Amino acid sequence: xxxxxxxxxxxxxxxxxxxxxxxxxxxxxxxxxxxxxxxxxxxxxxxxxxxxxxxxxxxxxxxxxxxxxxxxxxxxxxxxxxxxxxxxxxxxxxxxxxxxxxxxxxxxxxxxxxxxxxxxxxxxxxxxxxxxxxxxxxxxxxxxxxxxxxxxxxxxxxxxxxxxxxxxxxxxxxxxxxxxxxxxxxxxxxxxxxxxxxxxxxxxxxxxxxxxxxxxxxxxxxxxxxxxxxx
Amino acid sequence: xxxxxxxxxxxxxxxxxxxxxxxxxxxxxxxxxxxxxxxxxxxxxxxxxxxxxxxxxxxxxxxxxxxxxxxxxxxxxxxxxxxxxxxxxxxxxxxxxxxxxxxxxxxxxxxxxxxxxxxxxxxxxxxxxx
Lengths: 231, 130
Description:
The complex is a heterodimer of chains A (231) and B (130).
Chain A lengths: L13 E3 L2 E2 L3 H8 L1 H7 L52 E5 L8 E7 L5 E4 L2 H4 L4 E3 L4 E7 L26 H5 L11 H19 L4 H6 L16
Antiparallel strand pairs in A: 1-2, 3-4, 3-7, 4-5, 5-6
Chain B lengths: L10 E5 L8 E7 L4 E5 L6 E4 L3 E7 L8 H11 L1 H7 L1 H13 L3 H26 L1
Antiparallel strand pairs in B: 1-2, 1-5, 2-3, 3-4
Keywords (chain B): Ribonucleoprotein, Ribosomal protein
Family (chain B): Belongs to the eukaryotic ribosomal protein eL14 family.
GO molecular function (chain B): mRNA binding; structural constituent of ribosome
């Protein structure tokens, strides 16, 4: 129930394991069973089972499978929310390690409910749009930007869901060469990018050389040992 | 070609192996052909194989196996730490340490600075070539 539960306190203090302070009769009194009985006219309130409502008559199935197949066991496991690495805080510069933008240095905004990280280039500096990224494919640097004024609340996992396109099964379309409409970004998303980036860029500009840093890609050079590098 | 740095009481050495790696210590006594008794202001006096020590140019004036207080005072008087940090060897180690702890952004800034410096130098050279 949604009521706020205070921690349950026992009315019968335990003296030793198995032995309470009060006897059964005293506990009967303390619990107020006598008051409940009084309220209910002499006997403890009973909630009898209601007669089962008549079920609709189910027809026998037309088809029985040939063999009895074993049913798989029920799985009630709920995965835990993804733990965010302590080195990743809002405003951290991350290095992307995989995908189209590998090597790009990018600003972390927040963690989404699915566990993925919400990230933006900013787009003007390195071409990375507002995007989701998996924590595992990211190096967190120790460089942090102040993005306390940024409002990223409108970006959730739903924002990034693919739009379902319903195809009509008409013959003509079947035989026509697949017309793929060029999938352009809706203008609202472009506007969202601009609005968000404006604030982020302000924070970036306040630190010297940071905009050049974010524009460049990370790469390993001769002599750099990843396990010895401090990020 | 003669030897210049000798193992003697008061010779300052750098530990190059083991848990005390990188520390400056003073040889306060010689145990035998291979080992020295070694001490430093913030260290327990202990024996070390000479192979673990790299001798430096710095030598201080101390009696054999001095008390910790005497040793500390002698090191202060001879300004061991300052001489070490001004020596080219000492400076190199400091720079190496600093480079190792640079973070990614700092490395980037260093790269920019190197490029700028190189550009200035090239400009001057081209001026001289004319």
